[in-house]
Every structure is written in C-alpha cells, then in structure tokens.
Amino acid sequence: MENRTDDDTTPTAESALTQRVSGAEESWFDPRLEVRASSIQGQGVFATAVIQVGEQLVVEGGGGVVYSTQDWATGTVRLDPEKYNEDQIDDDLYRATLIDMSYLFNHSCAPNMWGGVAQRVVHPGEEVTTDYALSIFAPAYCLAPCRCGAPGCRQRVTGNDWQRPDLQARYSGHFPPFVQRQIQRLG
Ligand SMILES: [Zn+2]
Questions:
Q1: Of 18, 29, 57, 178, which has the fewest beta carbons less than 10 angstroms from its beta carbon?
Q2: Distance 165 CA to ligand 1 centre (A)
Q3: What's the gap in Å between 152 CA and the centre of ligand 1?
Q4: What is the pLDDT of residues 100-158, one digit of tens each?
C-alpha cells in the first residue's frame, strides 16, 4: 500500500473499502474441496470425494469493489494486493474481492472445472483446475513454462489466449461479457 505507514491512524480508503467488502456476500465452495500443496504451483484446491460431471463446485459471491483505471490512477481506490484479488469485468472496470479459495485454483490446459461446474468426474485427491484463458486478459501476462502436465499443454499461458479459436469453442458462453463482445467483433 503506497503512502501508508504503520503509525498512520487516520481512516484510509482501504479501511473504508474493507468494510464494504466484508459486508458483501461471500463466495460458496463445495465442502468436498480442500486446499493442499500443489505440484502445479504453490497451493491448489483438491477434491476430497468423488465429484460428478455437472456438479456445482463454486458460486461466486456478488460482492467486491468495482473501479475504473481512473479510480485507481487518482487514488480513489487503494487496495492491499495481499488481501484482494482483481478481476477485469468490463472494458474499463475491475472488481476486487477479498482473497479466498477461488484465488487458489491453479491453471490447467485441460481443466476439470469452468463456470464453477465440474466438467468431468473428479476423483478424491485430484486437483480441481481451471483455465486462466477464462480469467486473465492482461496482454502482458505470461505463465511459462506451464506445469499443468496435461497432454496438449500450451506451454505458455498468456493473457491473449482467449483469442485462440480452440479455446473460444471449448469455453463458449463462459467468458466475461466484455471478452465475449471482443470475440464476436474478431469473428
Ligand atoms: Zn499447461
């Protein structure tokens, strides 16, 4: 947090925002999910029981702080990156939510969950994964080498992967609206 010291006792934008966020609806996670160390990266989310195709595993809460690039640049919104996760939700709109389990789903090039729903049977002890192509749209983003270990691994996962026709076909209807609009424009 810039411009902030430990002895700063005046109310800050962050404390006001924390109140707003903590009063918001939290996300729901299936109780058969738990956090463990992952061979893909850091911590991951794992199944503790068999999960069938089509079962809802995550329901995203509706809360969070929504802001534009200008809000950020002018300091209207200041957030501690250790506490908040940022998702782009529209052309110039971002949503920050308190970091929870949804932040810990690792990327796989052959994920078993998207849209919060299991897309194939997940066995106990198996990591539940998603595809960052559905959530990361920063053009400069690059994850390389990808360690997902899936057959057909892309090796390099980038913030432009949503432009790939194969991924557009696989995840049709699951991209955020501002990405869906871009896909229609490009198509
Ligand atoms: Zn991969």
A1: 178
A2: 17
A3: 7
A4: 898 899 999 999 999 999 999 999 999 999 999 999 998 999 999 999 999 999 999 99
Q: Where are the domains of the chain?
A: 13-131
- The residue among 50, 54, 70, 46 whose CA lies nearest residue 126 is 46
Enter the pTM of the model: 0.80
The rounded distance, in Å, linking the Cα atoms of 182 and 162 is 10
What's the 108 CA to ligand 1 centre distance in angstroms?
5
CATH assignment, 13-131: 2.170.270.10
User: What is the spatial distance between Cα 59 and Cα 74, in angstroms, rounded to a whole number?
Assistant: 33
**Can you tell me the distance from the alpha carbon of 60 to that of 119, in angstroms, rounded to the nearest whole number?**
17
Print burial letters for 135-144: b (CB count within 10 Å at least 16), e (below 16): bbbeeeeebe
